Amino acid sequence: MALTGIQIFKLLPKTNCGECGVPTCLAFAMNLASGKAELDACPYVSEDSRAQLAAASAPPIRPLTVGYGDTAVKIGGETVLFRHEKTFFNPPGLAALITDDTDAAAIEAKCQRYMAYQYERVGFNLRPELIALKCVSGDGAKFAAAAKLIVDKCDLSLILISEDPAVMKAAVDAVGAYNPLLYAATADNAEEMGKLALEAGCPLGVKADGLDALIALVDKLTGMGLKDLVIDSGARTVRQSFVDSVTIRRAALMAQNRSLGFPTITFPCEMTDNLAMQAAIAAGLVAKYAGLIVMSDFEGSTVFPLALERLNIYTDPQRPMTVTQGIYDINGPDENSPVLITSNFSLTYFIVSGEVEASRVPTWLLIMDTEGLSVLTAWAAGKFVGDAVGMFVKKSGIADKAKHNSLVIPGYAAAIMGDLEEELPGWKVTIGPREAAHIPKFLKEYKAA
After folding, report:
1. Are residues 120 and 151 located together in one domain of the fold?
2. Is residue 415 part of a domain?
3. Where are the alpha helices (DSSP H) in 181-259?
4. Which residue among 8, 112, 341, 402 has its CA within the 20 to 30 Å range from the CA of 167?
5. Rounded mean pLDDT of 238-251?
6. Which domain, by its residues, includes 36?
């Protein structure tokens, strides 16, 4: 159960040193209680107090990592039912299913195809992260060979699927260092699979028939010392999978049910053979509240919409996405190239920079910090106004890169032109297009002073 600010305060050193960023330990305790600070910000808290606070402040859904490297997936760690209450932290991992009876050439081809599904969107690289390898041969050596081939040929992380502990051990011996998820411990094999996961230090998937059976199985495994679990209620219909997913999240967050306080794994691939329908099911599970989602295959037409939905849902709704303030050179500008300015709202930046790049006109693009607001909103809020823009232009260093004193402002900010000319005497200020799509034509016709 979460501690109150006063309870946390009693465990702090009470030095009021201010090194945590606030003047008193009581203020720091209140920030900890409300989730606005991290315990590591206090350099003097004792180890005993740190242990007590860490246990009490642990998120109701345990965070854990599946896989390795750039495609390792951190799941769990969530603290709210609805993202507008705070934010969602760890987006679900997307996995495609491969069976171990697939020939090596086909496995390698799939790996290469899956790795190629990467998309740039507002500065983020959207891609799937996992391959789920299912043993259908019953042969541990074959399963292990397929697992080794996957980790050798691609950078995607791995879910190993087998309920036979002997078969699973063969694969773990081959690729256990890559931190795969071992799926699944069941009522019939829990002890052997639990021991294997403990020895390998890998996360373990837990599968049961219904939530009551799942709770009993989780309690048995946690009693063995296992902590990194991914749970599956066994639901394989669309309706029941959604009901169980919501029930698990509510039980962990609202009832503090530690037996269900783990991320989940779901299998749209076992609910329908139609890949488009799997994507539709997965889209719902991204929002409600899957930790891992296993599809039968990946195609660009299904991966990109899911990855984009995931990005949107797991973006902090209280913090706009931004790019760094500064000077951006596009298409290799020189001292005679035009200078444009816009806000640091990431979507604005990527739309504008994309159109500038498409124009093939060498251009300097000034990005001004407007706290993540778009141009029109920033102007209305007094953050993209003449004096502020002028001050930024003078301090930006653009005068050292462009020999002309000419600046193009967004069409939606035309109202700042007079104040900007007063702030930048001797500069030629031009009002650019209102719509980004008109930038290429504008740049081709524009001449700096």
Report:
1. yes
2. yes
3. 190-200, 211-223, 238-254
4. 112
5. 97
6. 5-56
Number of domains in the chain: 3
How far apart are alpha carbons 365 and 250 in whole angstroms?
A: 47
Maximum distance among all Cα pairs of the chain, rounded to whole angstroms = 81
8 A C-beta contact, residue 439 and residue 432: yes
Residue 54 pLDDT: 73
DSSP string, 248-277: HHHHHHHS--GGG-S-BEE-GGGT-S-HHH
Q: Is the pLDDT of residue 297 over 90?
A: yes
Q: What are phi and psi of 204, to 5 degrees?
A: -125, 130
Q: Going along 54-187, which residue ranges are E strands?
A: 64-66, 73-75, 93-99, 119-121, 124-126, 130-134, 157-161, 181-185
State yes or no: pLDDT of 98 exceeds 90: yes
Q: Is 191 in the same domain as 236?
A: yes
- The residue among 321 and 125 whose pLDDT is bigger is 125
Tokens of 358: 């498409």
CA distance 213 to 210: 6
* pLDDT confidence tier of residue 94, bands split at 50, 70 and 90: very high
Q: Which residues pair with 121 in a beta bridge?
A: 124
Q: 176 with 221, same domain?
A: yes
Q: Name the DSSP class of 52.
A: H
Residue 123 has pLDDT above 50, yes or no: yes
Distances (CA, A) of 123 to 48, 141, 304, 323: 42, 42, 15, 8
Task: Write the CATH number for 25.
Answer: 1.10.15.40
Residue 70 sits in the same domain as residue 102: yes
Res. 85 pLDDT band, cuts 50 70 90 = confident
**Which of 313, 348, 383 finishes a domain?**
313
More confident residue, 33 or 231: 231
Within this chain, do residues 227 and 175 fall inside the same structural domain, yes or no? Answer: yes
At residue 234, the 3 state secondary structure works out as: coil
Of 271, 287, 313, the position where a domain reaches its end is 313
Model confidence at 1: pLDDT above 50: no
Distance CA 16, CA 250 (A): 38
Retrieve residue 269's tokens. 């691939």
One domain, residues 122 and 212: yes
CA dist., res. 187 & res. 305, Å (int) = 37
3 vs 9: CA distance, rounded Å: 10
**Residue 319 maps to a domain:** no
Query: Are 297 and 275 contacting, i.e. CB atoms less than 8 angstroms apart?
Result: yes
Report the CATH number at residue 101. Answer: 3.20.20.20
